Input
Amino acid sequence: MKINKMLATVGVTGMLLGGVLAGCSSDSSSGSGGDGDKTVVELAGWGASPEEKELLQQTLEAFEEEHPNIEVKHEVVSDQYMDVMKTRLVGGEAADVFYLDASEAPGLIDTGVLEPLNDYVTDDFDLEDFQEPLLNAFKSDGTYYGFPKDFSTLSLFYNKEAFEEAGLEGPPETWEELQEYAEKLTVDEDGDGQPERFGLGISQELARQFYKFQPHGGQVTDSEGKAAFAGDNAIAALQPVVDMYTDEKTAGLPSDVGTDWGGDMFGQGKAAMVIEGNWTIPFLENNFQQLEFTTTELPTINGEKATAAFTVAYVMNKESEVKDASWELISYLTGKDGMEIWTSKGFALPTRQSVAEELGYADDPLRGSFIEGSAYAQPWQAGKNLPTIMNNFDNQFSSALLGEQSLEEALKKAQETANKEIGSAN
Output
């Protein structure tokens, strides 16, 4: 899935204060292969860009300087991260602390392999400093199982030069206005029905569509965790996207113009607008330096603000033998000091409001829209059956975009097939 690819590339990554002093830790240095008097904490995550790797190293060095009795051994899992972690958890070989994407959190929490963190939290940790939607992505029945290290929401990227040429002043504020803008921004010079530039670049993946359901009263899953997106509410949410692509020809997929994802499509001038995450900013700045662009919050849907949030937490292995030291690491990495180091370059955005303000991101012309959206964003998760639901949605929604079946038929087929597979698995 493209979104996972982009998240893994840029990290969408963060940090916190608090906890018990390492010198008073009850952990034994032998629990994770101690070096002398030091307690060793194993940290596992996926790969990131060289810039992010350097930032993480700086953060870990700052942690070790403040906690001289703790040594962090950091491992990068290059491929099939969650498969590797699940195998290690079953085999009792998982790291003490590791990354967990919000989309995977409900399923892993359900297995009972994560350490509940409520008892470790002190007032100094300042839970209220986190943006609530991001914090709640790793919470179940009142219990916290992880704390978000960074995030990105989705914002609207638009080409300022294209807007000026089309006589458009300011971004669209509603989805209806977005459709009108897309029509004016679409360029089909030879009139062959295949635009050289689409008004809007889109994605067919559920990860980029699910946030549209809620403003129409719809949802991805029901209370039992089964697919529940085939109703009139979902059709109302998604039909405009299908119409723009199939009938109006004002929206296009990256593959339609020979690109891999929306950021590249936008950078090459083959879409005047795209809905993308914060990871797109450094990509555009590094690869399309002449491009004049900016970002804004997504247009309202059915009168409501809505966007998606992609976030990752640090979590603790329930079988860790160095839990106090592991909490020291988590509380620093998701704390104010650690998070400020980690997010200082803007590759990842801080989940703490105080850090976002300290670094000036709330007022940043490019990143401010992402920060603003975090207050009302919907985390990308939908229970432990999300992989099954997602696969069936993506396949059938693509078929509807291609005109092979109506949107109603596609959603019903996706929902029925997903629920059959869920039933069989259970």
User: Anything to note?
Assistant: Residues 35 and 196 are 61 Å apart (CA to CA).
